[in-house]
Amino acid sequence: MCAALVACSPPEAPNPISPRSPTSVPPPAVEVSTLLGDLDHPWDLAVAPDGAVLTGERSGRFVVRRPDGSTGELAADLADLHVLRETGLMGLTLSRDFPDDRTVYTCQGHRGADRRDVRVVSWTVDPGWTTLTRGADVLTGLPVSDDGRHSGCRLLLHPDGALYIGTGDSKSATVPQDPTSLGGKVLRINLDGSPAAGNPDPVSPVYTLGHRNVQGLALQPGTGRVYSIEQGTHLDDEVNLLHPGGNYGWRPDRSGSGYDEDVPMTDPERVPGALAAVWSSGYPTIATPGGTFLDGPAWGDWSGALVVTSQQGEKLVLLRLSEDGRTVTDETALLDGQFGRLRTALLAPDGALLVTTDNGSDDRILRITPAT
In this structure, are residues 288 and 237 in contact, taking their beta carbons and an 8 Å threshold? Predict the structure, then answer.
């Protein structure tokens, strides 16, 4: 195990993406319905064991579809929420012991008397899904830019008990390669905020570095592999297979005088040992903020594929991965141009794919199922 991130020997890099070619497998035929509507930039969502679907709007509102089909806003104290451009109420997830502890975790902008940051917060929701009660701050100090860009902040609870947190680089030239900063990273912590066992540096929450803006995290069923979905500049949104201590090569300090977004997303010349992406969008970028894996026989040949959402491309990208998870063997698209900008994808317990739109007007949670 590495004593510190800067001293880590990078793990073996994934192979470059296979050349783009038309898929040999047709995309799945699907049926789409609206599960919840009348929303404004819903960032993330979660499905509770009782069937309730919870989402949070970036501007600061929790909305639920209850098990009986009724919908409504949940009361919650968001008085300190910092909302600016890409920053606000962002990632959310439910405790793995949710039926017992009713705990919800969010990642959100924070505005204090003397500082602004992004932090992970715990909440407790009542059995009737009417009120969220604020709990402890789990992790604080994630950097935020003056103009609200690149806040990232996706949450993923892993079966190993650790909470993974994808973060943005806060539009700072030095943050992604700084092992002491929490920005431009994937963090891995216990639910009390302490670094999780097995981190590269046992006293640091930093799990990987060299990221631009990690807005998506996806767990591959059956393998425990975690993939980050990362927003690119004008070139190369990325999907990255996470390795402990891995450096993914974003270093926007080339000019020495500011934030240089013309550098490559993965720059092995200036970041020796930088790990190659499993998939990249090429030019132009399509803005990829989320992803999840399809699972179940109803999805046919595309069961096991990674679904990547797109805002600018206004579609879902389906990626079939090689057995070792390092390359893409097939690629296709769904919902191309049908519902506008798409942010978050989540596979529900019943096998349906839930997707949030991100248009800012009459946004929805879509329910997508294989056609019968």
Answer: yes
